[in-house]
Amino acid sequence: MLASVPPTSAPPRLVLVSGDEELLVSRAVRDVIHAARRHDPQTEIVDRAPGEFTESDVVDLASVSMFGELRVVVVRGAQELTDDLREALLAYLARPLDDVVLVVVHSGVVRNRKLAEAMKSAGATVVTAARITRPRDRHDFVAAEVRRLGGQISAGAVKALVDAVGSDLRELAMVCDQMVADSGGTINEALVAGYRRGRAEATGFAVADAAIAGDLPEALTVLRQTLAGGVPPVLVVSAMTTGLRDLARVAAAGGGSTWELARSLGMPDWKVERSQRAARGWSDEGLAYAMRAVSAADAAVKGGAVDPVYGLERLVTQIVSARGRPAGARR
């Protein structure tokens, strides 16, 4: 489980986040940044996605700040670093700067494990973010998450909640947050049963996620399951609209770290991160085409102009095709 950096304490100068569970990695990095901001509100954040850390970043990392402000440098996907960049970071570890917090995120694979081991040898704080796969561990995560939020949950409710939500850790965390807030802090099996009844409406977002990601077979499969479960077509269209709008907002914001964009856009960091990943396959023209398609589908479904199943399947196909639409393409 996650051993986090307390956001209220001064941050350690070296932090190794080991593992590839996205939620735990995101939280670990966020906690380091929060701790740094509390220690020095003027902290500069340099957050590099996998493959984006460059030689110029290494030079900046080893350079003393002119104004003495704290810097947090996050190197994600360290297992993907080139040999030269890995060696440059190893050289930095021999003489780390006092005004820099270096956060290295390594998935735990063999490649570049030498860097992860060197971080440990240099005294780095190690945060474990290994993927949670066993049911027992998911149960433990839910119980710990509810406690972290100041609530309490019965053993039966833990099992029922995991059965209802499944293995997606981020979704489990969101549901725990929602249910602690809704229940006043105490979660029992009756409350979870009520959640399961309302959960069908949320499956529209699963359809939207798959379509926006370009996975046509998955999107159509989930769509048919969703409609068979009694979810109104209008809710599926609404979920499509929300997903595309989030994508457009993040794409329009341009570059920047997930944390910075989440703050400026007023969106949860997990939603920004998901939209950033999805945006890599979209052009402005493709996004505009998809928005027109979803608007037309909304009017058609509400007006009863088309068979809802046919209309939604056509919309899913249009969104998937729009994702690969090249810049400059016309309808």
Give an overview in words.
By secondary structure, this protein is α/β, with parallel strands linked by helices. The protein is 59% helix and 9% strand. The chain has helices at residues 22-39, 55-61, 83-94, 113-121, 135-148, 155-165, 169-183, 189-199, 203-212, 216-228, 233-253, 258-265, 269-279, 284-303, 308-323, and strands at 14-18, 44-48, 71-75, 100-106, 125-128, 152-153, 186-187. It has a 5-stranded parallel β-sheet with strand order 2-3-4-1-5, sandwiched between helices. It has a two-stranded parallel sheet with strand order 6-7. Helix 9 crosses helix 11 and helix 9 (203-212) runs parallel beside helix 15. The longest helix has 21 residues, at 233-253. It starts with 13 loop residues before the first strand and ends in an 8-residue tail after the last helix.
